[in-house]
Fold this protein.
Amino acid sequence: MTPTRTIGLAGLLASTVLTAPAIAWAQDAAPSVPAPQDPEAVSTVEDIVVRGRFVPDVKRETSAVANILTEEDIKRSGDSEIGEALARVTGLSIVGDGYVYVRGLGDRYSSIVLDGSTLPSPEPLKRVVPLDLFPTSLVSNAQIQKTYSAQYPGEFGGGLIALSTRAIPNERFLSFGASISAETETTGKEGLYWDAGGKLSNIGIADNSLNLPKFIAIDPSLKSFANNPAMLQAAGRSLRNIWSIDGDKNLPDFGFNLSGAEIIDLSNGVRLGGFVAVDYDYQVRNREGVRNSFEVNGGVNDQISPEACAGAGGLSNAVGCGFRRTEQEYALNALGAFGIEFNENHELKLTTLLLRKTRQQALIERGLFSADPGLIRSFQRLNWIEQQMNSNQLSGRHVFMLPMALDRLQIDWRAAYSTATRDTPYRREYSYRLEPDNVFRLTPGSDSNRTFFSALEDENKEFGLDFTLNGMIADREITLKAGGLHQERERDFASRRYSFQPAAGVIISPELRSFVPEIIFSPDNIGGNAGYTLRDITDPSDFFDATMEINAAYASAEVEVIKDLRVTAGVRYEDSEQQVNSFIPLGETGAGDPINANLAQDFWLPTATATWEFADNMQLRFGYSKTINRPDLRELANALFLDDDSNTLERGNPNLKIAEIQNYDLRWEWYFGQRQSATIGLFYKSFDNPIERTYQPIGEGFGRSFQNAQEATLKGVEAEIDYTLPMDVWAPNLTWFQDNEVFVVANVTWSDSEVKDAAYTRALQGQSEWLGNLQLGFENTTARRRATLLVNYQGERISDAGIITGSTRLPDVIETPPILLDLVASQTFTVGGRDYDLGAKVENILGEEYERSQSFANGGKGVVEGYKLGTTFSLSLSTTF
């Protein structure tokens, strides 16, 4: 991204944000009355004095600095996943598969609650649930809170995303929709595939053939088989002999959703209601590009790029260097919400949410690897990943009227049980190398092949109770809140690794190594003294278990101190204990010895927000709070994980500390019309012991881990505008402008961060200097059509912070996200007395690319990862019965 391009886009967004309110102000100031030649009209206007307007807005009524994402906002953007929709909100960016960065901070500083309850994550490398699991059809609204409130968990850094599922419906309905899409880099082109087997594998459900064989499950360590060659041979033969990756044409993406609601009115005001929704999506994506790893001085460790093949000495088989990956994704989501209203004051609700995603991956990396200097190597991986999150919540709301000044008492309670699982029942890796006789052969070393089985389970139990008491005292509205939370979380992870290695004293012939793996590892070549023997190569650190318990209580008060000045203040007390049990990995001193990490600490977390409505429909907010950021259970574990997307190893750090954060916010808000507003805000944060993801040596190469920096600061400015252009006033004689409502939604965020440590200063990991969104669109309610052009910009950020190794600091890995330009349009039409909604969307019109890179002291730059992102064309059709 060139500086000119960055400044140009930021300038466009900033000018839109800052000039549109001026237009609206001038429009308010101008008299909207008939021309002076109409004497009756003039005399009428002389009797009217307009001082201001009350403009209702959900965001305005909150007691915190917040943004609200409504169903109308989602319709405008045409987004199918809540993560995509949140990317349009001021100061938010979405990274990877739906991970929220608030004000440029990493996803670790974001919190997500669903109907008030926290959620476990099915990702072993992430602390929060990925939002691409949530289709927008299952979410009624989202509140993005940027200042802390005491009723929420104390882990708050950048912001909190509060998702709400649909409650008891107002009317019965049945709705159905379907969609199809094509991506220019994938659809109709050749992809990489392997045979997962099973009748239902084509919809993301694997059969038992991918699981650890029952024979090996007798003793997964294989130790009891060591002195029984027949049993060891049977164990090796029990593994599926599926290795090869084939090419096939990619299908288009498709999906459907079905939802319905029913209401039953009983006697005495009792009302039953239920809402059920099911959503299914299939998506396939090709990714082709380069991946490299570098030494501190810029020298190349691994070179997976076309340049590797170009320098292969003219060998005819040295072609196709670089990386290719095809990922098929099957998503099945379901929501059931059932409630009973006894009257307007008492309500019970049962919500069950199931989010399931299966990914089948095939990967080929070809190039120069440090493990085989001077030889072209081809690395293949087959991977099957099943992720599932199930959340169940029983909640109640009860309102009582009391004979006192604070006369309304509301009691809210919830009991939630959630689980998240991630199973990798089948992952295979193997490598061939191009030898001097121009023949690819299976590498002879111990890393020539591996088979993995792993499973992660995260269980969360939570009970919360909230009391809200409000009323009037001395003509001042007062709201008092108090409540508590008990949370228990358990996480277990286990992995097994196996490898076929030559039997003792056996040398595998070059001829056999030149065949495909199905022949090399055929049953005839397993066991005995003439072939391969199955070995367990599991590392002690491939297992860990962890627990966390939190007990919390809070109290807060919202008071109108003087006219037009509201103050909300509170404090939260949290007492937590985290316990992680893992092991020292192989290759390190004391390998196999236990490592127990224990973090037990309590905090008092004060918060205060003042809102001053200093002019008609304008208000100023100031907020302060102290919050924390705990290490995730996995980040404390010394276990080794693979990031499937970047093919990078990650390891936790048992010595991490809890980070403490001081938060300051100041925001000016102007509400000048229905769904029309402008805001400008300032924010400042200081961090003690911030936790960051780092880039550092792991084993024989480089990977990721985590560490505490000493301190850090973040400061910034954000501005936004939501404005409907008065086209009928500007062009009253043009019919098109009279019938259409033209709107602009724009926001821009500038932030600057600084991490201070013993030997260096840099920006926070994951923090972008510039973020921006622009939406330009029109809507015709009479013709029932709308169209929106959307721009999303995220500035470059540190993906992985380089650490000091020896006397040298490794260079940071810099991520350069693409500029995304999308176009969304929809039309409602009637056929046979029924309405149908037809939607069309074009994503990534610019065809931007993704890149991560490193810059070195000698002025050089190396691309760590880069690949093309195609343009996606989508069509959807839905109707309601």
